[in-house]
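Title: Comparing notes on inverse folding

I've been comparing how different people in this forum approach sequence design from structure. To keep things fair, I'm posting one structure and asking everyone to reply with a full sequence. Here's the target:
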């Protein structure tokens, strides 16, 4: 089962476990770590870089907009990026 973590929690977990953040081609950040009991966890989240890449597709293809499935706890730099890219 999964749990939801916000941007700051994801960054904190990565730092606490000295995890290396990987990025997909579209810039989506993720990392994996193991707890002291050996349980493996994988964390995916969005940040300004990944949102910028995805929002560029809205402009490129003339889409009607974008949807954010969960508001609150995001990278605070996302909103200026949304305003900039979706002018």
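Reply #1:
Here's my take.
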């Amino acid at each position: 089962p999964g749990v939801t973590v916000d941007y700051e929690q994801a960054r904190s977990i990565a730092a606490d476990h000295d995890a290396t953040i990987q990025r997909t081609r579209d810039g989506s950040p993720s990392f994996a770590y193991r707890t002291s009991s050996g349980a493996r966890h994988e964390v995916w989240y969005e940040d300004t870089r990944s949102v910028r890449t995805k929002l560029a597709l809205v402009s490129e293809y003339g889409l009607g907009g974008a949807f954010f499935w969960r508001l609150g706890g995001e990278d605070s730099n996302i909103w200026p990026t949304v305003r900039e890219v979706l002018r």
